[in-house]
Amino acid sequence: MSEKNTVISFYKFVNWGGVSKRKKELESFCKERSILGTIILANEGINGTISGNDENIKEVVEFLKSYPDLEDLNPKYSYASGETFGRMKVKIKKEIVTMGLNGINPSEITGEHIKDEKWNELINDPDTLVIDTRNQYEYSIGTFKNAINPMTDSFREFPKWVDENLEELMINKKRVAMFCTGGIRCEKASSLMINKGCEEVYQLDGGVIKYLEEVNESESLWDGECFVFDDRVSIKHGLVEGDFSLCHACRMPISEEDIASDEYIEGISCPNCFGTHSEEKKKRFAERQKQIKLAKQRGEKHIGKIY
């Protein structure tokens, strides 16, 4: 692979079948081109983030669009120095983004997509309830002005939060605006909101990634960095790689200040998880960290589970 890699993220909700056949086709096509990343397939659609050299990524996009249901697929592009994933995986799951709730079908009904300047106007309006549909560790390193944090650890918790809080939060509000990293979670969340009776539901088109790519920092209402699920950890305006690292013990983003803390031990603990791991786990973490260093000395990348 070249030093600079093209990274694309994409999704589409579509009622289709034949996911087992598609899995084999996609796995073979991507591996032949040294593509790394993860693609999730389900009866409700496709969701993926992959990286590789520019030419091979173009070939994958063309291949994806050769499926009749994906002709209008619109991937989001960004770039990274070095590899962003350890391997190529194509998985079959019940949902392409797990909400764990039946009867929600974004391929049939979803909120209105809003872009850039109109998004700024929308979330500046005091009549708009702005909801960050991401997890709290993502919210902690960056979010939009006026955004509500549902304090969820996974997207599966979002429907319960809606049931417990939406009615009170909508007092004196006329509409809901939601966002997430690439658009897929708020696509499903907006379908849920409509299902719950909300009449005016909007979502940020292309998610935070597209916003940071297209909106000038001087005009931006985004504060902080955006967490991404690859080795870059976070990105800034212009899709520049961010300043956060990842704690390999708890998978939480960590800042330079966290790394300077006495509670940070590389690969074993950070201020987010210090004192929460058993001695047995810490031994496993220490062994994993040892293997990572040995692999690095050999000029290789260590691939293995944390637990």
Topology (SSEs and partners):
Layout: E1 4-13, H1 19-32, E2 36-42, E3 45-52, H2 54-65, E4 76-81, E5 88-92, E6 112-114, H3 116-124, E7 128-132, H4 136-139, E8 142-144, H5 158-169, E9 175-179, H6 184-195, E10 201-204, H7 207-214, E11 222-224, E12 226-227, E13 234-235, E14 245-246, E15 253-254, H8 256-259, H9 279-297
Parallel strand pairs: 2-5, 6-10, 7-9, 9-10
Antiparallel strand pairs: 1-3, 1-4, 2-3, 8-11, 12-13, 14-15
Descriptive keywords:
single chain; 9 helices; Oxidized Rhodanese, domain 1; four-stranded parallel β-sheet; 307 residues; Alpha-Beta Plaits; alpha/beta
Walk me through what this model shows.
The protein folds into three domains: 4-92, Alpha-Beta Plaits; 112-224, Oxidized Rhodanese, domain 1 (3-Layer(aba) Sandwich), CATH 3.40.250.10; 246-297, no CATH class. By secondary structure, the chain is an alpha/beta fold. The strands form five sheets. A five-stranded mixed beta sheet has the order 4-1-3-2-5. The protein has helices spanning 19-32, 54-65, 116-124, 136-139, 158-169, 184-195, 207-214, 256-259, 279-297; strands at residues 4-13, 36-42, 45-52, 76-81, 88-92, 112-114, 128-132, 142-144, 175-179, 201-204, 222-224, 226-227, 234-235, 245-246, 253-254. The model has no long low-confidence stretch (mean pLDDT 92). The radius of gyration is 20 Å and the shape is globular. It starts with a strand and ends in a 10-residue tail after the last helix.
* SS element count, helices: 9
Helix content: 25-40%
- CATH topology grouping of the largest domain: Oxidized Rhodanese, domain 1
Query: Beta-strand percentage?
Result: 15-25%
Number of domains: 3
> What is the average of the pLDDT values?
92
Unreliable stretches, pLDDT < 50, 5 or more residues? Answer: none
CATH class of the largest domain: Alpha Beta
